[in-house]
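=== Structural record ===
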Amino acid sequence: MTQVVIISGGGTGIGRAAAEHFAQQGDQVVILGRRGALLEQAAQAIGGRFPQAPPVIALQADLAAPDQVERVRDVLRARFDAIDVIVNAAGRHVLRQVPAETYADGLAGVARRWTDNFRLNTLSAVLLTEALADQLRAPGGRILFLSSIAAYRGSGQGCYGAAKAALHPYSQDLAKALGPRGITVNVIAPGYVQDTGFFGSALSPAQRDSKAAEAMTLRAGTPQDIAATIGWLASPGAAHVTAQIVQVNGGAERGR
């Protein structure tokens, strides 16, 4: 059966790998994000790789803006009777993407840095999930959140790790609320993943090697590693797995 899969941040990195995973299965994939041109390019590329799947739909939106999430909800409600899977993969560490001096204006900069990370990593996932929860197929719906190893060990600045960690109790509350409808809610917490734009050019080759060496497998993770875990948690085989935080980091951080 063809599933309807909604993926935020589906234009790049882990989100795009997840979109490719579901398209390969022949599912209807909808990718969301702030950069419209990039989303359209990704949709066309994925469609070219997996022509057996329905054409990927790209919807541009700032998912931390309630009115734009409402617009996405209305578009999806008009097109689909039900949604099978929501993958909240959008997010980034603002200090990896903008110059440090952007937040150098004392407490005002601290407040803005924390607020920006909260909007990008927590609020975007919460608003999309709350908007679409009533459209999830019941039973059988799946909600997945992308957290980070930083939720366990910190991120050097506090704000990114804290924003990701906030998804953990939210997902557990949501799992309890939606469990009676046969809907599962889980979190994936990746470790160091190569071939994404998360670090940009911030890491030297030696730093990348050092991060990879933290894993017991002695390699960096890949977007496909994370997408495979997302795919399993979205599958019928994971129907009795909910309220869990699944670490995918090669053993760099022990299970807890």
Strands lie at 4-8, 28-33, 57-60, 85-88, 142-146, 184-190, 244-248. The mean pLDDT is 94. The longest helix spans residues 106-132. Residues 190 and 248 are 5 Å apart (CA to CA).
